[in-house]
Amino acid sequence: MDSKNHNTTPKEDEKENPRRTFLKQTSLLTAIAMAPSALVKAAENHVDDKIADVFEKMPLKMEVNGQLQSLSVEPRATLLDILREQLDLTGSKKGCDYGQCGACTVHIDGQRVLSCLTLGVMVNGKKVTTIEGLAKGDQLHPMQEAFIKHDGFQCGYCTPGQIMSAVACVREGHADSEAEIREFMSGNICRCGAYPNIVKAIQDVKEGGLTV
Ligand code: FES
Ligand code: FES
After folding, report:
1. Closest ligand to residue 102's CA
2. Do the domain assignments include residue 45?
3. Nearest-ligand number for the alpha carbon of 197
């Protein structure tokens, strides 16, 4: 009979098993180490709520894709966040949120802008067009058709911003050559590298003389 298994108290057993003791201690240390980060996160959320309370909301009236919108917004809210979070227009993408990628491009009064760098309150009284407002009902915009025809995307994340910039690029008269298109589309980054096909789509629309 194995006396070791039956005649020792749990304490003695633990003494005999340093591996188990080590694992218990390690788990305890891990739990202690995790606690501060959870506390920091909770504190951050609390501070964020407090900051939000401090800002008095401001009225914002703007036309978005042909519809008048009357909103109440924080003065620090960007147009991108207002479009996505308050109006559920999630076509404009948040790629970097720092003006580096172009995924958030929309038109304000016909001019392309980066909505992540535009405060919502700056758009009061203006007309905003997002990718959702480009098609006319079931009829896609010529630039949308051209992107499909030329395979101007892979994952599609950058595509709404690319198309909004592409439309502006043609309207601005900056689509006369491949080099010019590349220069004036350089603010729109595509991690999938669909650039050659994007250029072809823009050239197609430009050469077709389509109204954009
Ligand atoms: S999200 Fe606006 S430029 Fe990247
Ligand atoms: S299609 Fe994937 S990032 Fe441009």
Report:
1. 1
2. yes
3. 2
- List, in sequence order, the alpha helices (H) in 70-190: 79-81, 142-149, 159-171, 178-184
Band of residue 3 on the pLDDT scale cut at 50, 70, 90: very low
pLDDT digits (tens, 9 = 90+) for 107-130: 999 999 999 999 999 999 999 999
Distance 164 CA to ligand 2 centre (A): 14
Q: Say yes or no to pLDDT of 7 above 60.
A: no
The domain boundary, picked from 133, 157, 176, lies at 133
* 191 touches ligand 1 (CB under 6 Å): no
| Cβ burial 103-128 (10 Å sphere, 16+ → b, else e) | bbbbbbeeebbbbbebbbbebeeebb
- On whether residue 80 sits in a domain, the answer given is yes
CATH number at residue 147: 1.10.150.120
Domain assignment of residue 105, given as a range: 55-133
Could you report the per-residue pLDDT of 59-109, keeping only the tens digit for each? 999 999 999 999 999 999 999 999 999 999 999 999 999 999 999 999 999
140 and 181 share one domain:
yes
Tell me the β-bridge partners of 67. Answer: 64
From ligand 2's centre to the CA of 194, what distance in Å? Answer: 7
Q: How far is the CA of 152 from the centre of ligand 2 (A)?
A: 9
The per-type count for the chain, helices as H runs and strands as E runs, is 8, 5
Are 194 and 142 members of one domain? yes
